[in-house]
Structure formats: structure tokens, C-alpha cells
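ESCALATION

Customer reports they have been waiting on this structure for their group meeting. Please prioritize. Original submission:
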Amino acid sequence: MNTDFLVIGASITGINVARELKQRFPDTTVVVIDKESGCARHSSGRNSGLLDAGFSWSPDTLKARFCKQGNQQLSDYCERNGIPLNRCGELVIARDGDELSDLDEIQRRAEGNGVKLEPVTARQAREIEPRARVHEQALFFPSSASVDPAAVMRQMEQDARDAGVRFYYETSFLRKAGDEFVTTLGTVQAGYVVNCAGLYADQIAQQFGFAGNYRLLPLKHNYLESSEVPGAFRTHVTAAADLSGSYPGTQIFLGVDGKARLGPAVKPALWREQYHGAEGFHPFEMSSVVTTGIGQMFQGGGEICRACLQRFTGSTHSRLITAGSRLVEGIRASDYRDWARPEIQPQLVNTETHRMVSDFIVEGDGKSMHLLNTVSPVFTCGLPLASHICDQVAAATGR
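Update from on-call: job pushed to the front of the queue and completed.
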């Protein structure tokens, strides 16, 4: 196969990079390969569907740069294409006096990112969400919403096909062989490669000479599904203290159908696609993940240990119920028995600084471009992030 652009990974970024490349350079051929049988089989199709307003990220990050814009673009996209959208908003609360300073930090970040917000009193907050446990103050973010990620991805794939992008599924990238690329479909000659492979993006990037100081720690995210009727909650609810750090904590999340979820529970996965028990057991990956995790914990001066403790504290059923009860009234364990479908996020660790990487990483040159650390809120950021990657490709190739 010969193609001008080869995109690896039918993720939200991969599909939109391919579509935009074809639209910018209509005389070129653009091919997407993915090892699965269809698009968005991993994080892009498994995520919660939260459209993040963009208030919790530091203004100097790519996440902050693209989150507000991505929220608006994806909301407009859903409305334009008749895809269900729940514009429920998000209430960020102080649970006690100690958390008022965290609320101030969230407001500072939101204003720095240009995100619309409404400061509210405890009484006003309970008018928005009667079950919220609010101490004195809260912030309401009307642009937070939720969608069905699978429905979004089906439409985006169709848009890319309509633009002239070709898709080859059940086709794995195996290795780089000089200027050619070996796949399970055969050898591909490509003028330029864009790597949006998610859980395997670091391994592919390393074959091109990038991601040298990064190693992957796959983290499994999951929510408990509520059996309460849709409408039992009116909005997403999150504690300010769980957002002021680098690793957001427990929230009440409303799906596009209005039903509540509690989470996320965050646990380390022992291999990159360990969704359920020993399914897909991969001993080499497990050895690498365990070695990386333990090694960085010992070398990182406690930063990774603290981050892991912060993330994993609420990872069990009982701890989630306890955390949820501090957020809102009326949380009963009997209403939260079933787990939703898990997602695994490709969390990178920088082996030089011994810290978890919080922002997206884009590395490349005149031959290839690589998107690394596609953790939350990459789904919200998907459209402007894809445009950013295309800008980088255009600059690198002089197009």
C-alpha cells in the first residue's frame, strides 16, 4: 500500500486528524489503520462521555488551551448531527471551611481559562442540586455536559469516510523498517505518519526516536452506575478539593440519559488492555508495567506515591460510597451495585523527572508526529487537539 498520510489509531484524535488532513490537502491520500475491528474500541469509545468545561486545568497547559474550545465545538457538533447531548452543567462545591480556598483556586483557574462560571451561595447551590452537601459556597459551570461517546465516534468516522479517508481495521502496526512500515496487512509506504495509538503510542513513538524518557502506567477508570431513576440528580457534582490538584477525584456524573454514576474508581492495570480479570493476559507488558511502576515510585522522591494514593484512595466500592456520601445526600450502597464498562487511560511517567505527566505531549519531525499521554479530558479536547496536530504536521513538512 502507498499513501501520503498514514494515521495509526481510529481514536477521536486519529479520526479527526485524518479527516482534517484530507480536507486541508485534498489531493493527498489519507489512510487510518487500527488493530481492532472498528473505531473507538478503547478510551475514545469507553470514556464516561463527560464534556469538561475546562476549569480545573492550569492555564499554561494544552488541556486548558483546548478544553473550553473543544467543549463548545463538540456540543455544537452533537446538535448539528442530532446526537443526544445532556447540558446538565456542573456544581463544584466546598464541603467544609477548609475547602473554601480550593474553591478559590478553581475559580482562579476557570477565569484564567476564560470559562463561564456562576459563584453561588449554599442556598443557591441547593436550588441547582437539592442533594448537594454545600458549605457556604459553590461554583456552577453551565457548559459542562455529557454525550454518548460511541454515537459521537460513529458519526465522526462517517464524516472522515465522506471526506475520502480510507480505513483498514484489524490491521496492526508492527514495526518501522527504514522508510517502510510493516503491518499485519502488509508493508505500507507512507509519506508521513501520525501516531494516535493511545495505549501503544509510546511504543510506536520510540521506533521513530521519540518518547525516549516516557514509560506507560495504564490506569483503569470505572464508575458505579446508580439504579435511581433518571432525574434523581440535576447536575454533575464535584468537590473543589478533588479538582485543585493534578488528579481529579470522585464526582456524581450524569450520563446523556440522565442516570447518575459515581466515580471514577481508579486502579492500576497490570497490562495495557486489562479490562476484566486475566482476559488478554500479556506477561511481557505486565513485567514492564510493574517494573516501571515500582522503579519510579522508589526514584521519584514520593511524588508518584502521593499521586497514586490520591488517585487510588477511592478505588473500592465502599470507599466510593463513602466519598459520594460526603458530596450529596441520600447515597445508598444498594443503589450502586453495578459497574459501568471500564476505561484504561495511558498515563505516562517521565523517567527523568520521576513524575506523572499531566498534560498532552506532541512530538515529531518532518517524517512523523506522535500524540502521547492521551488522558482525560482528551475526548473533550479531541477536535481542537486534532487541528493542533495538523498544524504541527503542516509546519514540519512545509505544506
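Sent to customer with the following note: The first strand starts at residue 2 and ends at 8.
Escalation resolved.
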